[in-house]
Design brief:
Structural class: alpha/beta
Strand content: 5-15%
Distance between the termini: 109 Å
Shape: elongated
Largest sheet: 8 strands, mixed
């Protein structure tokens, strides 16, 4: 290979640059500037006990590494540690030096903790606001690391003070008391832990629940005497039952589980129709409760009204006479047509098919019109002096009934097994309905048809 003068000069320049780069890298990696005091400053700490601390140990401030321990000097009454801190780390002058360990047996390091009342300061605000080279942290601000050995010694002495034989006897008795229920107890503890974890994850809802339970618990506390009296009475009843020990009671206790199982099975068979029935009964109860005064008045007036009508129509009942009064009416007052179908839309009596009927049709004219004054438009409201044809006109609203989709089979046909509805409840192709199931179909069929 022929080396020209140009190539030789390039190789010399590359060698010089490589030597400079390697030198700078080694210079920075070996922290030569810090070793000679460039870019750092030294602070001394007076420890009464620096056990476990060693040169090159880390120095941190607010969890960030800011330097290292450069030297340790033993004195008669303690040890002086020299901390070499980076210049760019501003440490408050009143900071404490605390010894910590990364674990119970880990290496020690020095943590600089600022004072609790340290105001927000910046460099240059007040002389001595930050630590500087040559500063010293006195012993009253140097916190030694708690030693683990005394703690282990105390634990060891505590274990030695526990009597072994008595403890073994207690453990054996606990084992006998549990009676092999260890897995159940473990499951109970695990479930309690899961419950506490769920309650902690739902802390807001748990706090609200506790706040709501407080009045209930106060009420239960006030009812404490009544509860204790009830428990005492129940104890007396139980004692009396145990004393008599009759055959009928034993038979009842033996057959009760089967009866409860049958009741549970019946409720399951009635699903989902039973909740629907209860919901519809709730709606009916709302209506009856709203119109209760009117119903009570009707029940009070109805017998007297019927008696008067009978006395007017049949004043000579003993003789078998009936009084009839026939009068001709020439459309005075005229019949009400508004609100009903016009006469042209009325069907001939010869038409036998059915059609939808407007169940809310009523005489829709002014309330003070003399025609049909006793019509639906002047029905009195259950509360107040208002009148109207519907509860909504009186400011009343009721929840509607719940009706499932069905083809409208007749209850009797379902009960006896007839009908064209293939989807009838409790009936399938080829099945025959037993007598024990007829009552279910008779009860459930009205709910399975659309109104």
């Amino acid at each position: 290979m022929l080396l020209t003068p140009l190539i030789k000069r390039q190789l010399r320049i590359f060698a010089v640059l490589a030597s400079i780069a390697l030198g700078l890298a080694f210079f920075n990696y070996a922290k030569v500037p810090a070793m000679v005091g460039i870019g750092v400053y030294d602070v001394t700490v007076d420890f009464a006990d620096a056990s476990g601390l060693y040169p090159k140990a880390t120095v941190t401030y607010r969890g960030v590494r800011v330097g290292l321990v450069s030297d340790l000097v033993v004195r008669d009454n303690g040890a002086i540690a020299t901390l070499r801190i980076d210049n760019d780390a501003d440490i408050p002058a009143g900071s404490k030096a605390e010894l910590h360990s990364t674990s119970a047996i880990g290496e020690q390091y020095v943590d600089l903790v600022p004072p609790a009342d340290n105001p927000s300061t910046t460099k240059g605000k007040g002389k001595g606001s930050f630590l500087a080279g040559g500063d010293a942290i006195p012993r009253d601000r140097a916190v030694e690391m708690p030693q683990i050995t005394p703690v282990l010694d105390s634990v060891n002495r505590l274990l030695e003070s526990v009597p072994k034989q008595e403890t073994q006897r207690v453990l054996d008795q606990i084992d006998d008391g549990l009676g092999g229920s260890g897995p159940e107890l473990n499951e109970l503890v695990s479930s309690a832990g899961s419950l506490l974890g769920e309650a902690q994850s739902q802390i807001d809802a748990t706090t609200s629940l506790i706040a709501v339970l407080e009045p209930v618990l106060d009420t239960q506390q006030d009812l404490g005497p009544s509860t204790r009296a009830y428990a005492e009475s129940l104890d007396d009843v139980t004692a009396a039952l145990a004393k008599n020990d009759s055959a009928d009671l034993r038979a009842l206790l033996e057959s009760a589980p089967g009866g409860l199982g049958a009741a549970t099975s019946t409720v399951k068979d009635l699903q989902p129709t039973l909740p629907m029935l209860l919901a519809n009964l709730t709606t009916n109860a709302q209506v009856l409760n709203t119109y209760l005064p009117e119903i009570r008045q009707t029940l009070v007036v109805y017998p007297a009204t019927i008696a008067r009508v009978q006395s007017a129509v049949n004043p000579r009942a003993e003789q078998g006479d009936v009084q009839l009064d026939l009068r001709a009416a020439l459309n005075n007052p005229p019949s009400c047509l508004k609100g009903y179908l016009p006469p042209k839309q009325r069907r001939s009596p010869r038409v036998t098919d059915t059609r939808e009927v407007d169940v809310l049709a009523h005489c829709d004219i002014a309330p003070d019109n003399p025609t049909a004054v006793r019509g639906a438009r002047n029905l009195p409201c259950p509360q107040g002096d208002g009148r109207g044809p519907l509860p909504a006109a009186c400011g009343l609203t009721f929840r509607g009934g719940i009706w499932p989709d069905s083809s409208g089979s007749v209850a009797y046909d379902l009960a006896v097994g007839r009908g064209e509805d293939a989807s009838a409840p409790g009936l399938t192709d080829g099945d025959t309905t037993e007598g024990d199931d007829l009552w279910k179909i008779l009860v459930l069929a009205p709910l399975a048809t659309r109104r």
